[in-house]
Specification:
By secondary structure, the chain is an alpha+beta fold. It is built from 2 helices and 5 strands; from the N terminus they run E-E-H-E-H-E-E. A 5-stranded mixed beta sheet has the order 2-1-5-3-4. The radius of gyration is 13 Å and the shape is globular. The chain starts with a strand and ends in a 13-residue tail after the last strand. 29% of the residues are buried.
């Protein structure tokens, strides 16, 4: 069973988190199911960039992003070559090390 290792994030998981997941789950769903309240303003429909993450290890184990995700990622704050929308990034059989960026571009946020 693969693991997702979330690097420390000041607000969402200050000490980091290691979770075991079943292959086939998205990074976003895995985070939410384990108490990491990653933003997902579009309700995981690939229509915003609030769930943007950077996959520091294991990036190549996932299926490639599609054109819609790539177009959305172009709008993400702090875009890197290993960036993904966590609502679209499906865990495969390898462990992942994931960084949640400090900032998101969110026009409407419930956390003020």
């Amino acid at each position: 069973m693969p693991q997702i290792i979330f690097l420390p994030h000041e607000d969402l998981c200050p000490d980091g988190e290691v979770i075991n997941v079943e292959p086939g789950i998205t990074i976003c769903d895995a985070a939410l199911q384990n108490g990491i309240q990653i933003e997902h303003a579009c309700e995981k429909s690939c229509a915003c960039t609030t769930c943007h993450v950077i996959v520091r290890e294991g990036f190549d184990s996932m299926e490639e992003s599609d054109e819609l995700e790539d177009d959305m990622l172009d709008k993400a704050w702090g875009l890197e070559p290993e960036s993904r929308l966590s609502c679209q990034a499906v865990v495969a059989d390898e462990d992942l090390v994931v960084e949640i960026p400090k900032y998101t571009i969110n026009q409407v946020s419930e956390r003020h």
